[in-house]
Amino acid sequence: MGRRDELRDAARALIVTPGKDTRMPAFEWKDFFSVGHDGIDHQHKQLFAIVNELYDGTRRDGDASEELLRRTIAALGAYIRTHFAEEERLMRLAAYPEYARHKQAHDGLIARVAEFEARIRTGEVRQAAGLLPFLVGEWLTDHIAFEDQQYAGCVNSHACNPHAKYSALQELESTA
C-alpha cells in the first residue's frame, strides 16, 4: 500500500458516527491534513467546518434543513473560490511545477459545486445534498490529504525553481 492509499484510508476513517450530540462534527481535522502553512491549514479547517454544516443539513428534515443546505452550499462555493485563488497564488509564487494540474483539479471542484448551486436555484435542494459524498470521498480524502501535500514542500520553501520564481513574481506584480 502506497502513501496515497494510506492517507486516503486514514482520511476516510475520519467519518465518525454521530452520537446523541447532533452538533458533534462528522469530519474532524487531523494533523496529517496539514500542509505546514498556517494560512492554508486555517482555510482547510474552515472547509471542514463548512462540510460539517452541510452534513448537519442532510440529517435534518423540513424547511430549516433546506435553508441550511442553501446557505451552506452558497458558503462553500464562495469559500473554495477564495481558498483556491490563494493556494494558486502561492503555487505560482513558488513556481510549483505541477501548478497547471493542480489548478485543473480546483477548476473541476468549482464546476462541480456550481452544478449543485444551479440545482438549488431550480429548487432541487435535497438533490444538492448529494455533494457531500463527493466532498468527503474525493475532496477531503484525496485532494487535501494527498494532492495538497504535493505542493507543501515547494510552497513552504518558497521556491521550487529560483528562475521560475522570479518570473512568477513579475507576473504577480503585473496583475496586482
Low-confidence region ranges: 15-20
Computed Rg: 17 Å
CATH architecture: Up-down Bundle
Principal-axis shape equals globular
Q: Compute the number of structural domains.
A: 1
Q: How many β-strand runs?
A: 0
How would you name the CATH homologous superfamily?
Hemerythrin-like
β-sheet strand percentage = under 5%
- What can be said about the biggest beta sheet? none
Q: Termini distance?
A: 44 Å
Number of helices: 7
What is the CATH topology classification name? Four Helix Bundle (Hemerythrin (Met), subunit A)
Q: What CATH first level would be assigned?
A: Mainly Alpha
The H-and-E topology, N to C, reads as HHHHHHH
Helical content stands at over 70%
Indicate the mean pLDDT: 77
Q: Report the structural category.
A: mainly alpha
Descriptive overview:
The chain is an all-alpha fold and 176 residues long. The chain has a single domain, classed as Four Helix Bundle (Hemerythrin (Met), subunit A). It is built from 7 helices and no strands. Helix 2 (38-59) runs antiparallel to helix 3, helix 3 packs antiparallel against helix 4 (99-121) and helix 4 runs antiparallel to helix 6. The longest helix is centred in the middle third of the chain and has 32 residues, at 62-93. The protein starts with a helix and ends with a helix. 25% of the residues are buried.
